[in-house]
Design a protein that fits this description.
466 residues; alpha+beta; Immunoglobulin-like; 9-stranded mixed β-sheet; 6-stranded mixed β-sheet; 23% helix
Length: 466
């Protein structure tokens, strides 16, 4: 009877748990990063910012995985008080992955005319998102952003800028409805050779003889590649079918990395194609991939796979867009920067996600003067209420908040969105469970209930037996 009762209770509790509880069993924390104001590259720029209109519009974006996206538009009324024309180079820094650059939502204009810009990749930031780990807010200043604005080629430890390599291309063509198993063995002396592989899905290393074995199981036509830098290798190829062909050619490492990178960028945008053809951007892209490849060779005794160098595209980093604006003597320009951003999702404090967005205003200090900041936030349906902010915001309707400041605030701007107007004690209690138990948090109340029921039944049974 007790075993049957326990089984019955387990089944009843499982069926009783609402679907919403399971829906809330995803990550309890997901890191977002701040947005930033534009920067003058000249530290002594004579230009003044007469006003900034800052808009966070959550109504015009699609749903994102963990936090709602906002289309952020910062519009500046700028003035040249001198009696000479000024051409000013401005920098717009953002934090994101390389993939975020291919969005059609990045736009920089001056008096309504779209401006071209150059892209510079800076240092990696944070841990790229984690369910339970919180990143410290990056300390971004003028100096750290300038550090990423350069055209110097990456100086690698394991290869040169003019490095040539031997590329082995293995074309596998499995017969219909058959799999082909391909295995390649070679001895790798990291002091003499370096190896980059593409398309293989298995790897093993025999340390006593420096033997590496890589393999691939193919169900459809595949092209596998092995790039050897330095001394050539003796490859032992074993294949379960004769339906493969090997080609060998010499290639330039830089060209190979750039051609490889281009395959992962969307080709639906004419702008993306234009950027890829820009020599300065190709140099930046090479630096990005070369650094990952160099680190991979150092950490893995001369061996690196495509997965390692592809990390360059998926890591959050400082990315700076550089552009120039012409100002006539005593003239004004309306400069606008528009882009998408996402915030931090946090369920360690509340039952439902708390979404926090940051906007760094300290870059604005580089202008000769800065005044009149107007803020407007159109909140999303899923979290329409702002429950925290370090700037006093006025509610104008259910999903609109505004603020007007004559000068820049002392601290950078942040605000938090939530689905109800007030965070209750119950919200905080459930948030504590989320923090302690993560994905299992929705089960905790039901486990407690099950323990109580079993305890009551056991107690009643003991009383009855007396």
């Amino acid at each position: 009877m007790p075993k049957f009762l326990t089984l019955f209770l387990s089944l009843a509790i499982s069926l009783a748990i609402p679907a919403s509880a399971w829906a809330n069993s995803g990550p309890v924390y997901w890191q977002g990063y701040p947005s930033l104001d534009v920067i003058s590259i000249q530290e002594d720029s004579p230009l003044t910012v007469e006003s900034e209109y800052l808009l966070f519009d959550f109504s015009s974006t699609e749903k994102s995985y963990y936090a709602p996206e906002a289309q952020v538009t910062a519009t500046y009324e700028m003035f040249n008080p001198t009696d000479q024309p000024q051409t000013t180079t401005m920098a717009f820094p953002l934090i994101g992955t390389c993939e975020s650059l291919w969005s059609k939502d990045i736009k920089i204009t001056a008096d309504g005319q779209e401006l071209p810009y150059n892209i510079y990749f800076g240092d990696a930031v944070g841990k790229s998102g984690s369910s339970f780990q919180k990143d410290d807010t990056p300390q971004l200043d003028f100096t750290s952003i300038l550090k990423g604005i350069h055209t110097n080629p990456y100086q690698a430890r394991n290869f040169s800028l003019q490095e040539k390599g031997i590329l082995y291309t293995i074309e596998v063509s499995p017969p219909d409805n058959q799999q082909v198993d391909l295995e390649i063995k070679f001895v790798l002396d990291a002091n003499q050779s370096k190896v980059l592989t593409k398309g293989f899905n298995s790897y093993s290393y025999q340390a006593d003889i420096d033997m590496i074995t890589i393999g691939s199981r193919c169900y459809k036509p595949e092209i596998l590649e092995i790039l050897v830098l330095g001394q050539d290798l003796q490859l032992e190829i074993n294949c379960s079918s004769s339906t493969y062909q090997t080609n060998v050619q010499e290639v330039d490492l830089k060209s190979y990395l750039l051609d490889y990178a281009a395959k992962f960028f969307p080709d639906h945008s004419d702008y993306s194609k234009t950027v890829l053809d820009d020599p300065s951007f190709r140099d930046q892209l090479y630096n990005l991939f070369a650094e990952c490849l160099d680190l991979g060779f150092t950490q893995n005794q001369g061996f690196c796979s495509e997965d390692t160098i592809m990390e360059a595209l998926h890591v959050n980093r400082i990315i700076t867009l550089l552009y120039s604006v012409d100002f006539p003597a005593g003239g004004k320009q309306q400069v606008s920067v528009s882009y998408r951003t996402t915030g931090t999702m946090d369920r360690t404090q509340t039952v439902n996600p708390l979404y926090t967005f940051q906007y760094f205003l300290n870059p604005a200090e580089n202008w000769s003067s800065f005044k009149n900041l107007d803020i407007k936030i159109i909140t999303p349906e899923k979290a329409p209420y702002i429950v925290a902010s370090n700037i006093e915001l006025r509610a104008e309707g259910r999903q609109t908040y505004t603020a007007t400041l004559e000068n820049l605030p002392e601290n950078n701007f942040f605000f938090s969105l939530y689905e109800v107007e007030e965070i209750t004690i119950f919200d905080k209690a459930q948030g504590y469970l989320n923090l302690k138990f993560g994905y299992l948090a929705p089960l905790v109340p039901w486990i407690i209930l099950a323990v109580l029921i079993v305890a009551i039944i056991t107690l009643r049974k003991r009383i009855k037996n007396r």
